[in-house]
Amino acid sequence: MDNFSFDEMWEKIMACDSSYDGLFYTAVKTTKIYCRPSCRSRKPKKINVDFYETIPEAVEAGFRACKRCQPDAGLSPQMELVKSVKSFLVQHYKEPLVLQDIADFAGVSPFYLERQFKQATSETPREYLEKIRVDKAAHLLKNTSLTNLEICYEAGFQSPSNFYKVFRTVLDCSPSEFRNK
Ligand SMILES: [Zn+2]
């Protein structure tokens, strides 16, 4: 998994964050079950967890799908589109993407993309991209000594003013307040 460190994925599963469903799977070595990041089953111990980027990799390694979160349930065409766009955004969040770039990747019109994405996730691709960036920034604030300015660019924000504005919108505090919590 190139896009997230082990600790970032761990944070996401502890938060039961469904934003990252489909982008990686949690495999529990003791039960041989794999789950979506948002699964509400009892959390495993950290040392018993492995992460896989795809279902075939988890199955190959001997894991079975969780009955509760059903990570292997088939996806509708709409959810396939959403999943591939999420995965694109997670890989390209550092680039100054506009909606047209994302639509070009998906091979659909910007209008169609935004409508489908919003219907499925209740957020726009832009809002999702900003969430990825804020999550990345929050992780760096808590786990590194990088400055706010360094984190701003590391997380893919185009300017400090945009960073502060979006961060506050999503987490309801400033980056410095978040770090000191
Ligand atoms: Zn599960």
UniProtKB/TrEMBL annotation:
InterPro entries (alphabetical): Ada-like_dom_sf, Ada_DNA_repair_Zn-bd, Homeodomain-like_sf, HTH_AraC, Me-P-triester_DNA_alkyl-Trfase
Residues of the HTH araC/xylS-type domain: 83-181
GO molecular function terms attached to this record: DNA-binding transcription factor activity; methyltransferase activity; sequence-specific DNA binding; zinc ion binding
Entry-linked SUPFAM superfamilies: Ada DNA repair protein, N-terminal domain (N-Ada 10) (SSF57884), Homeodomain-like (SSF46689)
Keywords: Activator, DNA-binding, Methyltransferase, Transcription, Transcription regulation, Transferase
GO biological processes: DNA repair; methylation
Metal-binding in keyword set: no
Cofactors (names): Zn(2+)
Recorded coiled-coil stretches: none
Pfam family of the protein (one): Ada_Zn_binding
Keyword DNA-binding among UniProt keywords: yes
Family annotation (PANTHER family): ARAC-FAMILY TRANSCRIPTIONAL REGULATOR (PTHR43280), HTH-TYPE TRANSCRIPTIONAL REGULATOR EXSA (PTHR43280:SF2)
Protein name in UniProt: Helix-turn-helix domain-containing protein
Organism expressing this protein natively: Fictibacillus marinisediminis
Lineage, top ranks: Bacteria, Bacillati, Bacillota, Bacilli, Bacillales
